[in-house]
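Pilot study result, target chain (216 residues):
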Amino acid sequence: MSVNRMKEVAGIIIPDSKIAAEATELLLEHGTEFIYNHSLRVFLFSSLNAKRENKVHDSELLYVASVFHDLGLVSHYSSPDLRFEVDGANAARDFLKGHGIAQDKLQLVWDTIALHTTIGIAEHKENEVALMYSGVGLDVMGEGYENLSTEHREEIIKAFPRNDFKKKIIPTFFGGFEYKTETTFGNIKADVCAFMIPNFQRKNFCDCILHSPWSE
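Predicted structure:
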C-alpha cells in the first residue's frame, strides 16, 4: 500500500508515539489505502476543529480513534452481528488494553468510535467524541466545509487524496455490513442499504411497537 507518513499537515502534528505507530500499522495491514486516507483526513479535520473551537483534547487518543473508526468495515475486525462502529470500538479498546491504558481512556476511545455516526448525541459528549464526529461529518458530508481554509483543504487533500471519495464511500460502507443489514436498524447506515439494495425493506420502529407481544 502506498501511503503518506508525513508528521505534520496543515499545521497539525500527526502523533508518532509507539501506540500511534502501532495503530497505524494495523490500519495499513488490515485496511485499505482508501480507508487509510479517509481516517487520516478525519484526524486532521477533527484537530483543526479543535483548534478553531479551542477544545482541549488528547491528540494521541483522538488519533487512535480516527485510525480505528472504520476498521469495523474490514473482514479482520468485522463481527457476524454487531454494528461496524461497535466492531471498530471493540478493536481499539482491545488494542489499547494491551498498552495498559487506563479504563476511563479506554471508554473514551470506545465512545468516540462507537458514536461517530450517531447524529444528535455524539456532538454533545466529551471533546474527543464530538471532535471526531465533526471530522467524519466534514470528510463524508462536507459539514463545516465553510470553516476550512483553502490552504488547509488543499494541503490535506494533497497528503491524503480523496480519490473519488463520493463514489466509493457508499459501496465501502455497504461492503462492511451487507451480510448483516439488520445492524443498520435505527441508524443512518440503513440509508446505505436502501441505496445499494433494490427494494430494501427497512425494519420499522412503529411496526415493532404495533406487533409487540403485549396484548392490548
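One observation from the pilot: The two ends are 59 Å apart (CA to CA). A full batch analysis is planned for the follow-on phase.
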